[in-house]
Amino acid sequence: MKPRVMSLVIFTCAVGLLTSPQTIPLFDAMISIFFVTIGAGAAGVLNMWYEADLDKLMTRTCLRPIPTGKINKEHALIYGIVLSIISIYGLYYFSNFLSAFLLFITISFYLFVYTIWLKRKTPQNIVIGGAAGALPPVIGWTIATNILTLEPITFFLIIFYWTPSHFWALSLYKAEDYAKAKIPMLPITNGIEETKKKIFVYSLFMLPIVVVPYIIGFTGEVFLIISLLLTFYYNYICYDLYKFKKNEFVLKKAKKVFGYSIIYLFLIFVLFLVDNLI
Fold it and tell me: Phi and psi for 120 in degrees, rounded to 5?
């Protein structure tokens, strides 16, 4: 169920719920997030079911349960489908139709659009596919409010524009893996220099994106100032990656960008909570 990947997804979902203008009983909040967690895990299961042939070729994924034979592939498919049904129906029962529908869209988009359609066909796979990972905080917001407004859209935009630089940094130092599995990630199709350039460009996109919540009155000066400082540093290390030409430095700096990108997104969403409390 990819629990390490899932943890950041669920945290952003919880932030969406906690920063909404409406409060719901603690039990309802916890059980709703539980079903979103099950849904995120279901998406991970179905992804690993479909990509089992690729996973066994890559050092990053070869120890997953299906390639190692710990779990039967057909059983994984059944497990993923059952988890998906339980999560969507459970969220509908304990929350509302809108939240359940968004969870359905998230799981379906991740499986059919990203995993099955885009990943093996285009280097833009992660750009478009990032929409699935950007929906959980929106689901959290709708669990509490049952409506879509501008505020949760800012959550979506932040994750959507953050995703390419995050995953392209990973693909830089795991390029051999992707080449072996014949996955058309950007370093394979467009080369290292083009990948570094696009990582830097997408990091720059984050500057106006983190200002949007302040402009619409969703956050205050605390969020604005600190998020801009975090983003400036992100821009700096992405530029540092872009300007280096030697392969050994590129790999090291790509790992740095990837590692900081995770901390960066986590801190941005912590700031949403802190600013909301203030």
Answer: -95, 5
